[in-house]
Design goal:
The structure is a single chain. The chain is an alpha+beta fold. It has a single domain, classed as Double-stranded beta-helix (4-Layer Sandwich). It has helices spanning 28-41, 53-60, 133-138, 142-148, 158-165, 173-183, 218-232, and strands spanning 6-9, 16-19, 43-46, 66-67, 74-75, 83-88, 91-92, 113-120, 128-132, 152-155, 187-190, 192-194, 201-203, 210-213, 238-241, 248-252, 256-260, 269-276, 282-283. The strands form four sheets. Strands 1, 2, 3, 4, 5, 6, 7, 8, 16 and 18 form a ten-stranded mixed sheet that branches. It has a three-stranded antiparallel sheet with strand order 15-9-17. Helix 1 (28-41) links the parallel strand 2 and strand 3.
Length: 284
């Protein structure tokens, strides 16, 4: 089924811009076509969409079940299903979010997808980069693929979120940190996973939340994990998006990483995000 609108691929492995579509007016046919395009390109961008917090939730719900933000995150006052990813005058999440990650992999069932809308942008900078974990897996040598299939890794959000939530610029940070510690104690996921819809294999590790590979001595775990993470972060598998106000991104959290560049100094960068409920990652 063809998408109503123009599709412009953004890189060889990941990303496409969809123009000519108003996300406030989606029917079942458009949603089905967009979903097929999204699974192919992994990240879709819809330029300059005028969406309130409620409308953003309504659009996101066309693609899955809404997953409310966890306790470590700031929620939108108009709709608690919307997370506010904010760097205000250079303080807050911006300086801590400049790290490659997949959202909430420290949960037993990480989000399947995220939808993000640009609300307030700095005069320059503030791009978001995405990388394809499928392309990263495909590029590994066959010997290394064989060596890592069947391995599992422990994911934990506390080490990464603690500096952010104890930063003076983070609203109500200490209370949110205690809630995060109580609700999310970490979990184990396969190092190589199989996409539940496409069946494609990808790596499932990230610099922010993957702490160690199980069943290996510490020095081997650190060495192998660092190798895989550096491999995934190569520019060969990436694309980069320069935001305009109102731009909306929809990305597949199951097979991508993203990185929010903190290169805009003492300026505001405020984004609204909705996540979609996922399932337990499947071993390849």
């Amino acid at each position: 089924m063809a998408v109503t609108g123009d599709i412009r691929p953004l890189a060889g492995h990941i990303g496409a811009e969809i123009s000519g579509i108003d996300l406030r007016h989606l029917d079942d046919g458009k949603v089905t076509a967009l979903r097929e395009t999204w699974l192919e390109h992994k990240v879709l961008f819809f330029p300059r969409q005028e969406l309130s917090a409620d409308e953003l939730v309504r659009v996101a719900s066309c693609f899955g079940e809404i997953d409310p933000p966890h306790s470590g995150l700031e929620r939108h006052p108009d709709n608690p299903a919307v997370m506010i990813a904010a760097s205000r005058k250079g303080d807050g999440g911006g300086k801590f979010n400049a790290i490659w990650h997949s959202d909430v992999t420290f949960d037993e069932t990480p989000p399947a997808a995220s939808m993000l809308r640009a609300e307030t942008l700095p005069p320059v900078g503030g791009d978001t980069l995405f990388t394809s974990m499928e392309a990263a897996f495909d590029a590994l040598s066959e010997r290394l693929k064989t060596a890592i299939e069947g391995l599992e890794a422990f994911h934990d959000g506390i080490p990464n979120f603690t500096p952010y939530l104890l930063d003076p610029g983070t609203p109500d940070g200490p209370r949110r940190l205690e809630n995060l510690k109580r609700e999310h104690t970490g979990c184990v996921h396969p190092v190589v996973v199989r996409h539940p819809e496409t069946g494609r294999r990808s790596l499932f590790v990230n610099r922010a939340f993957t702490q160690r590979i199980l069943g290996l001595p510490d020095i081997e775990s650190r060495g192998l994990l660092n190798l895989l993470i550096e491999h995934c972060e190569q520019a060969s598998f990436q694309m980069r998006w320069s935001w305009s106000r109102g731009d909306v991104a929809l990305w597949d959290n199951r097979c991508t990483l993203h990185y929010a560049a903190f290169d805009y100094g003492r300026h505001d960068r405020i984004m609204h995000r909705v996540t979609l409920r996922g399932s337990r990652p499947l071993a390849a």
